[in-house]
Design a protein that fits this description.
Elements (H helix, E strand, L loop, with lengths): L6 H21 L6 H10 L5 H20 L5 H31 L7 H8 L3 H7 L10 H19 L2 H24 L8 H19 L8 H22 L5 H24 L5 H6 L2 H8 L1 H19 L4 H30 L7 H7 L5 H7 L1
Length: 372
């Protein structure tokens, strides 16, 4: 089955980035007007944009891994390409955060013993188990993703499609049990790798459905109804229980949210090209936001901080526009002057046309080309 680039998913990625940005912007505002109170409540749901990122990432990475499964250099190519995409901006930002920003603001540089978790992608463990760590708070999700992709390529490589399904179910069960245990012992489940990995695994299941020909227009209405059936109770539960730290909600919330986004993504993929939702997801502003979404995710808290600290705008609208404009500008600059340099290097770790023809059956050639 040939795989093609799904432009609408660039828009979905952009939407997820905007959800997180809206959440962080309004949560940083201290106003108590009726508008700010309701804006904070509504935008609180924006933090689930991370869950949307996870499910989407699980789908996209799994379809690439399946497409490359029989190719030489499967593991080497995957991990080097992953490093080229993620590490340069990640470590550049850590340098800015630890050594440039403190000097600029007249603060002391954090001791390395408090930095070390971030340099080795262990920040989410430090946050979960209350180790002494100082670093960009939102980087916890990047650690979860990297931990997942340490073992996921092996599971895809050594298991067939039926076995992968059982592996995904096992991850979902393990994550749920782990959330139960950690909640019982009063640990935070939101940042821990194992308690979040079922969202990425569920995205991988979307790829299995695609391979089996289930993500087609014929099944769009089923996924659409499932999405609507899950969305309303999820919103009501979120609003009704937010801030109450109810144990059973902490356990089941991630399952419910990931299923909402699973069904949403399946619906978007299945719907016909003329569908208004699909056309909206392909809008230029959303697809461009998706293109620079990694930079937006990395830089936006710093951009918001700079605008709020140094510009001190009285108007909320002006502060919002300045904050988002700064984030978009810096992320665009990062993408075209820094990230793109390393992205271009990825071509040295993918199969060329001659190798594709040699190692991949003809009917799978387009699939692999699309995934590289």
């Amino acid at each position: 089955m040939g795989l093609k680039h799904l432009k609408e998913l660039d828009g979905v990625r952009g939407m997820a980035a905007l959800m997180v940005m809206f959440f962080h912007f309004f949560q940083s505002q201290n106003g108590q007007t009726w508008f700010m109170v309701w804006a904070r409540k509504i935008c609180l749901f924006g933090q689930t944009g991370v869950s949307l990122f996870f499910v989407l990432s699980g789908f996209l990475i799994t379809r690439i891994l399946i497409g490359q499964k029989d190719s030489p250099g499967y593991f080497k190519n995957f991990y080097i390409r992953r490093a080229l995409r993620i590490f340069p901006l990640y470590y550049l930002f850590l340098i800015l955060y630890y050594f440039v920003q403190p000097v600029w603001e007249g603060q002391s540089i954090p001791p390395f013993s408090h930095q070390v978790y971030y340099w080795f992608y262990l920040q989410n463990l430090a946050m979960t188990f209350h180790w002494n760590a100082i670093g960009p708070f939102h980087f916890w999700s990047l650690a979860v993703e990297e931990h997942f992709y340490l073992f996921w390529p092996f599971l895809i490589y050594f298991l067939n499609k039926d076995q992968v399904k059982w592996g995904i179910l096992g991850i979902i069960v393990l994550a749920t049990i782990c959330r139960i245990g950690m909640t019982f012992y009063h640990y935070q489940v939101f940042y821990f790798s194992i308690t979040q990995m079922d969202e990425l695994a569920l995205g991988g299941f979307l790829s299995i459905l695609e391979q089996r020909g289930k993500l087609i227009e014929k099944f769009a209405s089923r996924f659409g109804y499932l999405f609507l059936a899950l969305l309303l109770p999820t919103i009501l539960i979120w609003i009704g229980t937010s801030g109450k730290s109810l144990a059973f909600i902490q356990v089941l919330k991630i399952n419910l949210i990931s299923l909402v986004y699973f069904s949403f993504l399946a619906w978007v993929i299945c719907t016909k090209e003329s569908n208004r939702i699909k056309e909206f997801m392909k809008a230029r502003i959303l697809t461009y936001t998706g293109k620079i979404s990694y930079g937006l995710y990395v830089f936006h808290p710093l951009c918001f901080h700079v605008i709020q600290t140094y510009m001190k705008l009285d108007s909320l609208i002006l502060q919002f526009l300045a904050s988002f404009l700064f984030a978009y500008s810096l992320s665009s600059l990062s993408f075209y002057t820094w990230e793109s340099y390393f992205i271009r290097k990825k071509k040295y770790f993918s199969l060329d046309s001659e190798k594709i023809q040699k190692f991949i059956p003809k009917n799978q050639e387009n699939a692999l080309k699309a995934s590289l």
